[in-house]
Request: fold
Amino acid sequence: VTDDGYRLWLKYDPIADVGVKKEYQKFTQFIAAPSANPVVKSATDEVQQGLSGLLGKVVPVVLSAKGQSGGIVLTLVTDKSQDFANKEGYSIETVQGNIRVSSESEVGLLYGSFALLRHMQTLQSLSAITLRSSPKVRYRMLNHWDNHDGTIERGYAGSSLWKWYELPERIDPRYRDYARANASLGINGSVLNNVNASARFMSAEYIEKVAAIANVFRPYGIKVYLSVYFAAPKTLGGLGTSDPLNPQVQAWWAAKVKEIYQYIPDFGGFLVKANSEGEPGPQDYGRTHADGANMLAAAFKPYDGVVIWRAFVYKSDPKGDRFKAAYEEFTPLDGQFDEKVIVQVKNGPIDFQPREPFSPLFGNMPKTPLGMEFQLTQEYLGFATHAVYEAPIFKECLDADTYVNGKGSTVARIVDGTLHGYARTAMAGVANTGSVRNWTGHPLAQANWYAFGRLTWDHQLSSEQIAREWVALTLTKDKKANTQIVNMMLHSRDIYVDYNTPLGLSRPWTGVHFAPEPWQNRSSRPDWTAVYYHKADSVGLGFDRTANGSNALAQYRPEVQRQWSNPDSCPLPYLLWFHHVSWDKKLSTGQTLWHEVCSRLYAGADSVLWMQQQWDQVKAHINPETFADVEARLRTQHKEAIWWRNAWVLYLQSFARQPIPPKFKKPE
Ligand code: GCU
Reply:
C-alpha cells in the first residue's frame, strides 16, 4: 500500500524533466516571509515541503530577501497598489529575479503559495509567471453530514474524519492534512456536523472538542461552523419551549453563542435545517423561517459569525408538487431576514438529482443573500462505486440564465452577489470525505472535491480546465493520458444519466438511494415513493409541470419558461422534468419516446464499457494501486449499469406495452 490516494492533489513527486528542474532551481534558493504569523507559517511550511518533494532539497526560510535574488518572496502589501478585488486575492510575478507572491492578507499569501506550487506541479515556466486571482465568493465551505457517533449520513467513504471520542485530547494528524487540502483550493469554512443535528454539539463537552479542531484549522484560514438543532433550548437547555420569539429562548441562544466564542474566538456560525423532513423549527410555534433565523442572528450580533439557513423544505401533499415548495415558502419572506443571514439553496428544486433544472429560488429573492448548496457525496450518483465527474453538474447550474434582470442574469451572478449586490456570498458542498485511506472511496471522486473547491474560488473555470489540472496534479503528467482521462471524466455524468435517469427522469429510488426501484409506490408519504416522480402510465411518462399540470414552470421568468414549456422544443435532457409525454410521440431524434428511452438506457450501460477501455489504455501512466482500484470499480459500475437498464426497461415496458427495439439485447 502506498500513499498515492492519501496525498490527494498535493503530491509533490520529484520532477523528472531536467530543463524544468533547472529553471526551478534558479528561483528556489530561499523562501522569504515577513512574519511569524501562523497562517504565513503554514504557507512557508507548504512551500518548503513542496520544494523538498519536487526538487529534493531543503530550502531555507528567511525573514527578508535582503536584496538577494533567486528566491520566493511572500509580501504583504498594504498600499492597495495592487488593486485586488478583495483581501484574499493574491498575485504572483517575477520581481528583481525573485518570485514575488503578494496579497493584502496572510491568508492571501497562503492561497498564493498553493497556486505557485500548483504551477510548479504542472511544470509551467516560472520566468514569466504572472498569476493574479481573487475569490468571487466569500464563504467557501464544506458541509459535513457527520454524526457524533462517527457515522456519516449519505457518506460512502468510511466513517467520520472527526474522532469525537478522542477529542479534545488527541489530535488526529489527518485534521491538518484535511485543512491543507481545503486551503489549497481556497475553501475557508467547514461545518463539522450533520444538518440533521444532534443537540449534543451545543453541549460544553462538544464545544471543547470542536475548539480543538478549530485550533488545527485556524492556521489554514478555515473557520469551523456547527449545524444546530432548533429545539436545543428545550432538549438541552431544559426550557419549556424553543419558540424564537420567547425572550428566554433568545437569551439561551445568546448565552450559548457567547460560550462558543469563549472557546473559539473566530467561530464561523450556524447552519440550520428547520421544519424540513421532520426537523424542529420556528413553524412549530407558528413563526416563520425569518423569525427563526433572525433570532439566531441576534445572538451573533457581537461577533463575526453568520447564520446559514437552509431552504430545503417540502411538505407531504398528495396533490402538490414538491418542486414548488421552497419557492412558495421562501419568496414571501424576501426582505425579512437579518443582514447576518444567508439562505442556502440546493442547486435544483428537488434534491441533488443526476440532472435538475436550476432552483427557481435563484433570482427570486433579490433582498436576501442566497448561497449555493451542491452535493459532492454521491447520494444519487452511484455512491463511491460509480465514476461521475460532477463539475458539469455544478457548471450547468451556475451558468444557467435566470433572466431575472434580463439576459445574462446567471445563477453564478446571483450567488457571487454581483447581480443583487449581496454583501455576504456563499457556496457550500456536502462533503464526500471520510476515514478511508484515500479520503473519498472512489479515487476519481477526489476530483469532485477538487472541482467544487476551485469553483467556489472562481466559478468561471471550465469543467475541462479543472479536470486537466486535477489529472495532472493527481494521476499523471503524461499529456496524452491526461487528455484521455479528462475526456472520460467529461462524459461520465451523461453516461450515468443515460442509464439512471434519462431524458429528465428523477428519483427512481427510495430509502438508501442506490438500487433501482422505479416501481416503488408505497410509503408513509406520497412524495417518498418513486412513482410520484416519473408518473409512468399507459399513456406515457414524465411529470407535467406546464400550466396543464402543476405549473411549476410559472416560477421561472418567461424566457426560461419558453425554453422548457413546449414539449416539441424542450431540450431532451429536461423533457420529462416538465412534460408527460406519450410513448409514441416522435422526438427530435426521430425516434418515439419509448424507443428513445430504450436507446439511452442501452447506450448508457454500454458506455461504461467504453470507460473501462479508456482507463485500461492509460495503465502505464497511473500508479498501479490507483489504477487497480478504479479498474475494479468500473467493473462494478458496468454490472450495476446493466442492472439499472434492465430494471427500467422491464418496468416501463409494462406501461408502454411495446417490444424492446430489436437492435437491443433483451434483459435476462
Ligand atoms: C436528502 C438526504 C437526506 C438529507 C436531506 C437534506 O433528503 O437524503 O439524508 O438529510 O437531503 O439535505 O437535508
